[in-house]
Amino acid sequence: MNKPLRNGPGVAVVCLLLALLSACSSSPVQQGQGDTASASKPRPAQDGAPDYFQDVSQIPDAVPVPHTGAYKASPYRVLGRNYNPMKDGRNYRETGLASWYGTKFHGQLTANGESYDLYGMTAAHKTLPLPTYVRVTNVDNDRSIIVRVNDRGPFHSDRIIDLSYAGAVKLGFAEKGVARVRVEGIDPVVWQQQNNPGYLVKAQPSAAPTAAAASPAPATVVASAGLYLQVGAFASDQAAEQLRSQLQGMVSAPVFVTPIEQDSRTLHRVRLGPVSDHAEAERLMETLRLANLGNPSLVSAN
């Protein structure tokens, strides 16, 4: 069946009465850019903020990573209107109103087929290809975040983006419901080159393919080469430590921060490992992607 949309008739009254609890935002389409799909679990009748507190300041921004698969950018139709998504969102720039969505859609499927997490750094947009990374800045207070666009919406004519609850809190407009923002597309390759010193570093193979196949312990051979996953690099040691703490609670591999000097400035690299083999590296990458922490680079010990 078709996914229901939020904010039907009378939504202005609801938002006025529940201003401190409700997102008062519009609904994204939650699967297939307007296609039909079943919800993953029952939803509460009213959207709004969670009834428990979590310090979202400790949630890191989404990490822009190059997308290697196909983008979702097919035309679709919602509420009698046709939408033609753009093929490339890296140069996208727009200023307008942002809203947010929360508990009613928590755990439901997004248009990208992922599970919506109100504490994830994600967003919905009508025409950006999925996925796209964007920087969103609240023009009233100059707060800025990076989010991963993985959903469709909002379908109010006066709103250009629908943020997760966590994103709205970090930008300082969750209680108000809407804010004027500037949205800027991000080129993940350029972002990685500027923020990740180990980006695209390839470890040398430890042996020829035939020798590796004959080895009785290939995992040990690969580990001895010193392979790690680098999740990011930050000018702020506090930001790096926050990410390290979050990662350590998610994976069993050691996670550590290493300061390095680059271009007369200190960067703090967040890495985990060593990883035992490429299969383990891929499993860890998928874990981090599902947690909206991106797909880290495979790097050597140096």
UniProtKB/TrEMBL annotation:
GO annotation (BP), single: cell wall organization
Compositional bias annotation for Polar residues: 29-39
Membrane topology note: Lipid-anchor
EC number(s) from the headed UniProt entry: 4.2.2.-
Keyword flag Cell wall biogenesis/degradation: yes
Residues covered by region (Disordered): 29-53
Keywords: Cell membrane, Cell wall biogenesis/degradation, Lipoprotein, Lyase, Membrane, Palmitate, Signal
EC primary class: lyase
Segments forming domain SPOR: 221-302
GO molecular function: lytic endotransglycosylase activity; peptidoglycan binding
Principal location class: membrane
Subcellular location: Cell membrane
This protein's GO CC annotations: cell outer membrane; plasma membrane
InterPro entries: RlpA, RlpA-like_DPBB, RlpA-like_sf, RplA, SPOR-like_dom, SPOR-like_sf
Signal peptide positions (record): 1-31
Described function: Lytic transglycosylase with a strong preference for naked glycan strands that lack stem peptides.
The family this protein is said to belong to: Belongs to the RlpA family.
Protein name per Swiss-Prot or TrEMBL: Endolytic peptidoglycan transglycosylase RlpA
Lineage, top ranks: Bacteria, Pseudomonadati, Pseudomonadota, Gammaproteobacteria, Pseudomonadales
Name of the gene encoding the protein in the UniProt record: rlpA
